[in-house]
């Protein structure tokens, strides 16, 4: 395993780490036994960082992490998120009393004394502009309940606003071959500020595995079925805002990236890791096989300058015009 610094903080994280949305809920059926086996496999391979949220399965993924990391609290780091149990537009959701309650609830579910990275979970831009929530997080940090804090954002504009606060240790962004905008300005600014970058949805909800077609179907409780057009939350969280039909069509034009890299999954993750500003990429998983496959991204060849340009041209000309939603 290779490890990267989280910005300029005293925290080194495995460059391939894992997100736990899929094992918590909203990605179809789950199996806790399989999830725990996969978590243990990841840790056995050197993964020391996991990302979760209080709303993933109503806290279920936090509870799974507590079981899997018991006795490893000092060596395995956990990031969790808050605010989506409330009205994200209501300033009271970000008050000292409310955030302390969210934090203490997560600590109890995680069975930890402190959260390594506590993130605001995609707040509206007006909350970021107001900035009061950062003072709340500073207080929780002083109390020792959290070690660092960050923000999971939907847009580059939101990310740039967050960077105005020097205590924001990390930004979590959607970034993949279909969503390249953060690399244009945000990454350089984050590096300049000493802020880490966590990359979520690196496979565009599975499109970049190359396994889907326009006729692929998903279970009723899978967001790829109920949020394809942004019905319940930001459309960019599902299929990179492209939709299944257009997204699978575009993915079919990228099969060449797998040449010499095993498969499209490994290649898509390698492309992200080839951006030095990225602290870690956090793909989801449901079983040991998926963990093993994702971890192989560390070992496959990097993309050449010519390949990187080819993929950027593809994004600009073929992908960007079809992305829905502001990002």
From TrEMBL:
- Mind telling me which Pfam families this protein's record contains? Aldo_ket_red
Gene3D superfamilies annotated for this entry?
NADP-dependent oxidoreductase domain (3.20.20.100)
Which principal EC class is assigned to this enzyme? Answer: oxidoreductase
- What EC number(s) is this enzyme filed under? 1.1.1.-
Keywords assigned by UniProt, alphabetized: Oxidoreductase
Q: Where is the NADP-dependent oxidoreductase domain?
A: 16-314
> Which GO molecular function terms does the record list?
oxidoreductase activity
Against CDD domains, the record matches this protein to: AKR_AKR11C1
Q: What is this protein called?
A: Aldo/keto reductase
Originating species: Chengkuizengella axinellae
């Amino acid at each position: 395993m290779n490890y990267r610094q989280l910005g300029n903080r005293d925290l080194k994280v495995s460059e391939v780490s894992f997100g736990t949305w899929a094992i918590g809920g909203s990605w179809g059926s789950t199996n806790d036994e399989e999830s725990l086996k996969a978590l243990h496999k990841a840790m056995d391979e050197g993964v020391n960082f996991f990302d979760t949220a209080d709303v993933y399965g109503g806290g279920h993924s936090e509870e799974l992490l507590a079981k899997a990391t018991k006795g490893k609290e000092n060596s395995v780091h956990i990031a969790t998120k808050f605010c989506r149990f409330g009205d994200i537009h209501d300033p009271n959701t970000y008050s000292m009393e409310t955030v302390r309650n969210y934090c203490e609830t997560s600590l109890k579910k995680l069975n930890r004394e402190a959260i390594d990275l506590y993130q605001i979970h995609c707040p509206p831009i007006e909350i970021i502009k107001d900035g009061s929530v950062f003072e709340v997080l500073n207080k929780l940090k002083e109390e020792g309940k959290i070690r660092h804090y960050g923000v999971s954002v939907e847009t580059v504009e939101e990310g740039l606003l967050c960077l105005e606060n020097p205590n924001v240790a990390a930004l979590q962004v959607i970034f993949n071959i279909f969503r390249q905008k953060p690399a244009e300005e945000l990454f350089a600014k984050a590096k300049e500020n000493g802020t880490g970058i966590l990359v979520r949805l690196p496979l565009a909800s599975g499109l970049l595995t190359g396994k889907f077609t326009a006729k692929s179907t998903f279970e009723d409780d899978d967001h790829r079925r109920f949020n394809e057009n942004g019905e319940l939350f930001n459309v960019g969280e599902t299929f990179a805002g492209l939709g299944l039909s257009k997204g699978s069509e575009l993915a079919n034009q990228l099969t060449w990236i797998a040449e010499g890299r095993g498969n499209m999954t490994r290649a898509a993750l390698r492309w992200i890791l080839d951006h030095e500003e990225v602290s870690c990429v956090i793909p989801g998983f449901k079983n040991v096989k998926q963990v093993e496959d994702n971890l192989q991204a560390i070992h496959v060849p990097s993309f050449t300058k010519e390949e990187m340009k080819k993929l950027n041209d593809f994004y600009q000309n073929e992908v960007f015009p079809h992305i829905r939603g502001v990002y």
